[in-house]
Amino acid sequence: MLPPVTVPDAATTPGGFLLVLSIAVPVAGVLLAFVLGGRWVRSVAFTIIPIVLAIVAATVMVLPQSKGPLVYLLGAWTLPLGVALRADGLSAVMLATTAVVISAVSVFAVADFRPTAAAPRAPFAFWILLLAIWGALNTIFVGGDLFTLYVALELLTFAAVPLVSLDGRPETLQAALRYLLFALLGSVVYLLGTALLYGRYGTLDIALLSRRVSAEPGALIAAALMTTGLLAKTALFPLHLWLPPAHAGAPAAASAILSGLVVKGSFFILLRLWFDVMPALPGFAASQLLAALGAAAILIGSVVALRQERLKLLIAYSTLAQIGYLFLIFPLALSASGQLDHGQALAGGLLQAISHATAKASMFLAVGSIYGALGHDRIIGLGGVARALPLSVLAFALGGIALMGVQPSGASLAKDLLLEQATSTGQWWWVIVLQAGGIFTAAYVVLVLAHSLTPSDQPIALTGHAPRSRDLAALSLAFCSLSLGLVPWEHYLPVPLGMALKPFGLDALFKFLLPAMGGTALAILFGPWPHTLAHSAMWKSLMRGFGPLRRICLDFGGLVETGDDGLRQWPAAGIALLVVTLLLAASMFTAH
Amino acid sequence: MSGTTVFGLCAAAAVGLGLYGLITNPQPLRKIIAFNLLGSGVFLLFGVVGRRGAAAGLGNDPVPQALVITGVVVAFSATALAIALLLRLFKTAGSTTLSGAPMRADLDPSGD
């Protein structure tokens, strides 16, 4: 028998209408752009963007005044039958981040995607898809039931896939098709889980489900299926076959959106599922399993990233590593009673997600400027670029430094929160992985900077001239990520008050030096590309000592790269998906 | 064996066949068809759920039907998008394989 229906938040709260607007206005923009046609599409986008920014700002301001989450009941239908939109602190933070990143990317893309008579399709598609992605993401952040989240997730995929193949080259079309097919596999597996949950509990509303769910076989299998589906969409290792070609092949502005925001959409649904719908179900083994996959993603994504010849592929692989970093929060959030807590670990994970969104978007934009000016993005051909394009390289460096976890960036605050949580729960092994994640991030930033800061003998031939506004967009995102640690989060996220940052002092210096030194060492050991410094006497004496170690590391890197190539084949990825589902289900069953 | 059990087993079989096809078939068109089979299995499961969950004198629980209709629309648009991409790929590349071409060399538009 189902328990008696107790309806939580049965009424629309004041300000709840803002949630509807945050979804409806971008969608209205999409429709309007279709009606008005290609010549007006950019004007429509630049009318809609400020309006949605204002709506999101209003939502963020209203939320602390309301006692609980903002709620809107669609059509005033009450809950077991109706559909609710809800916005809590997590939603507000994600809504705001999305608004900031999309605004910056649209400033960057103004020149690239100007509607012209010569190639009218790509600009038309870009601006429409940008608004569609925004609408879908906002739906994910405020959606109150699992089926609405499914539809939003599909809308997000449908808007993201064409962005990959905007230029219409066969390679990018292939990448887009791979992305679409694997994403569909993920979402249908998620839908299978929701069918099982509805069959058992008669509702898909998150608040209602959280009261009804108990550890039964049906619920555990549904949880394993839905989790795996979302992992496939988030591209957690080993389900990442679609990510590197898709993110590296898209135009810069599209890559920034795909890497910064789109993968966060499915990650956010996973947070809702594990923390809100079924906090008691996953248990110790399943959360350790997710974090172990995350740790593998950090190691393999970073090692393969350091071996890439092209800058965009390097950043795409580093996204893979940073997605892994986000999954470390699950075991850290587990309380002594086996419940996932809305505590420090969740706050740290969300902060890391938004730091990555802003920093990685700025890095992709900076690389887009470099690519546009040089006509290529081969890492060994970057010498002298820092003199020719100082602002782009500065934006890349600042974004990278923000991601490394240097004070006062959001990533640094996130790392503090997670490290403290790992120590207090006695899980020392995740402390090592957390530190290693920061060091690996530093490694590829150091690698790229080492190449772009070396002076080049002959002057660089710039094939194109980038308007200043593009660099400013990338720089503002990087600064945003770098200052996230200074924002007062306590109205939105469970960040303890004592976490005030001390940007100066021994502690801050250590937090900068550890990743910087470790990263330099890793970049030397794992980076196979010759550097001009390699001819110096100092390098040769260094190599006399470390030569054998470097050879071992390079061999290991080659091995990892071969393994990664194998895992990115369809049959291997499909079997990995089934194995992950089975392992998750088995680990949840053993917990109960 | 009751009707719902038969339909439930059919749904499981469709899901299994669809999964097998989606993972093992190298041809994108067959993958798209397998995805549709997999989706049909899930929709059938929703139907079974609606039948089983029927309560309060209704012949059937209407919510899963609404979910299935939405799901069908979503699966239809997914199929349309996939086919459009596939046709575009065939027109530009002359073949429709998903793998084979080395990614690193191909992604470099400067051609070296």
Q: Care to describe what's here?
A:
The complex is a heterodimer of chains A (592) and B (112). In chain A, 72% of the residues lie in helices and 1% in strands. The two termini of chain A are 21 Å apart. The longest helix of chain A has 32 residues, at 170-201. Chain A has a two-stranded antiparallel sheet with strand order 1-2. Chain A is globular, with a radius of gyration of 23 Å. By secondary structure, chain A is mainly α. Chain A contains 22 helices and two strands. Chain B starts with a helix and ends in a 6-residue tail after the last helix. Residues 101-112 of chain B have low confidence and may be disordered. Chain B is built from four helices and no strands. By secondary structure, chain B is mostly helical. Chain B has one domain (3-94): Helix Hairpins, CATH 1.10.287. Chains A and B meet through helix 5, helix 6, helix 9 and helix 22 of A and helix 1, helix 2, helix 3 and helix 4 of B.
Please specify the SSE layout and strand pairing:
The complex is a heterodimer of chains A (about 600) and B (about 110).
Chain A: H1 17-36, H2 41-65, E1 70-73, E2 84-87, H3 89-112, H4 121-142, H5 146-164, H6 170-201, H7 206-212, H8 217-234, H9 243-249, H10 252-277, H11 283-306, H12 311-326, H13 329-332, H14 344-374, H15 385-388, H16 390-404, H17 410-424, H18 428-453, H19 468-482, H20 506-526, H21 537-567, H22 570-591
Antiparallel strand pairs in A: 1-2
Helix pairs in contact in A: 1-2, 1-4, 2-3, 2-4, 3-4, 3-10, 3-14, 3-19, 4-5, 4-10, 5-6, 5-10, 6-8, 6-9, 7-10, 8-10, 8-22, 9-10, 9-12, 10-14, 11-12, 11-18, 11-22, 12-14, 12-18, 14-16, 14-17, 14-19, 16-18, 16-19, 17-18, 18-20
Chain B: H1 3-24, H2 28-52, H3 62-93, H4 103-106
Helix pairs in contact in B: 1-2, 2-3
